[in-house]
Each structure stands twice: as structure tokens, then as C-alpha cells.
């Protein structure tokens, strides 16, 4: 092999190794930013990781489950898919304007070992015809019809 060819091959190898290292570092950095969605079925089967921040859960806010702690911004409510045990969600902060009982929400936060979910973000649907895709799939599995899916007389 000629010295020029050997030099070119070494340069190509270094470029490829640098590119592979950059991709590996990028994937490693993005791993902590992923928000995995878990259904209430998976949580009931203990398939969701506990004490791992950044997971998402969704369901319908159970009627008469919203409780406020005095004058603070701390609230507690339950979400359900009407088939599995409801999940208690704790949240401190401003709730979205469209948040209310009987509506679909997605909460992002940490599932604790005691079975409660500490949310650091609550996402509510933006109009009466929208249901988050993950929550809609869970509701379809349970056979529950959301009010926007029911036919109007």
C-alpha cells in the first residue's frame, strides 16, 4: 500500500470514528429527554418504572376526585381509563384553563413506589373534540365512549 493511500485510509477511519462517537454522545444525551408514555394498564401490571422522572401517564380525570390543599396551588386528583384502578396524581402549579373533571389529561412526572404519581406538568385537551392519542387508544381498549365520540340527537 502506498503512503498516500495509507494516509487517506487513516483519515477516512478517523472521520468515521469521530462521526460514530458524535452519534453515540448525542443518543446518550437524548436518553434523559425522552418522555415515555405508560397506560394505566401498564401501571396496574407494574410495567412502568418507579422513581424515574419524565414518564407520562394519561386518562380521564375522575369525577369528584379533584382536591385542593387550602389556598395553595397543590392539587390531587385521580385519572382513570374506566377499566383499571385509578391513579392518584399530585401536582403543584397552575392547572391548564381547560382542565376539569371528566376530561382527558396527560401528566408528566414520576411514579412513586407507593403508587402515587407526582406530576411536574399537566397537559389538558384543547377543545371538546380532541382527546390525546394515547388516552384515546386507552379509552378505545376499555370500551368507554368519550362524550365527543357520542352521537348527538
Instruction: Please provide the ordered H/E string of secondary-structure elements.
Output: HEHEEEEEEH
Kindly report how far apart the N and C termini lie: 83 Å
Number of helices: 3
Q: How would you describe the shape? A: elongated
Could you say what the CATH topology of the largest domain is called? Answer: OB fold (Dihydrolipoamide Acetyltransferase, E2P)
Residue fraction in strands: 25-35%
Overall pLDDT, averaged?
82
- Give the number of domains: 2
What's the β-strand tally? Answer: 7
Layout of helices and strands, plus pairs?
Blueprint: H1 3-31, E1 37-38, H2 40-44, E2 55-61, E3 67-68, E4 74-80, E5 87-92, E6 104-111, E7 117-124, H3 133-142
Parallel strand pairs: 1-2, 5-7
Antiparallel strand pairs: 2-4, 2-6, 3-4, 4-5, 6-7
Describe this structure as you would to a colleague.
The chain contains three helices and seven strands; from the N terminus they run αβαββββββα. It has 153 residues and is of the alpha+beta class. It has two domains: 1-34; 37-142, OB fold (Dihydrolipoamide Acetyltransferase, E2P). It has helices spanning 3-31, 40-44, 133-142; strands at residues 37-38, 55-61, 67-68, 74-80, 87-92, 104-111, 117-124. The protein has a five-stranded mixed β-barrel with strand order 2-4-5-7-6. The longest helix has 29 residues, at 3-31. The model is unreliable at 147-153 (pLDDT under 50).
Entry summary:
With 153 residues, this protein is α+β, with helices and mostly antiparallel strands. The protein has two domains: 1-34; 37-142, OB fold (Dihydrolipoamide Acetyltransferase, E2P), CATH 2.40.50. It has helices spanning 3-31, 40-44, 133-142, and strands at residues 37-38, 55-61, 67-68, 74-80, 87-92, 104-111, 117-124.
Amino acid at each position: 500500500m502506498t503512503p498516500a493511500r495509507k494516509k487517506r485510509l487513516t483519515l477516512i477511519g478517523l472521520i468515521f470514528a469521530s462521526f460514530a462517537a458524535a452519534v453515540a454522545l448525542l443518543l446518550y444525551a437524548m436518553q434523559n429527554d425522552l418522555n415515555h408514555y405508560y397506560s394505566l394498564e401498564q401501571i396496574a401490571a407494574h410495567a412502568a418504572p418507579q422513581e424515574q422522572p419524565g414518564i407520562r401517564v394519561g386518562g380521564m380525570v375522575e369525577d369528584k376526585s379533584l382536591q385542593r390543599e387550602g389556598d395553595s396551588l397543590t392539587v390531587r386528583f385521580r385519572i382513570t381509563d374506566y377499566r383499571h384502578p385509578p391513579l392518584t396524581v399530585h401536582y403543584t402549579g397552575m392547572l391548564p384553563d381547560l382542565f376539569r373533571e371528566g376530561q382527558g389529561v396527560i401528566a408528566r412526572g414520576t411514579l412513586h413506589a407507593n403508587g402515587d404519581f407526582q406530576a411536574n406538568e399537566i397537559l389538558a385537551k384543547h377543545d371538546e373534540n380532541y382527546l390525546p392519542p394515547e388516552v384515546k387508544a386507552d379509552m378505545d381498549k376499555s370500551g368507554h365512549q368519550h362524550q365527543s365520540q357520542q352521537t348527538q340527537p
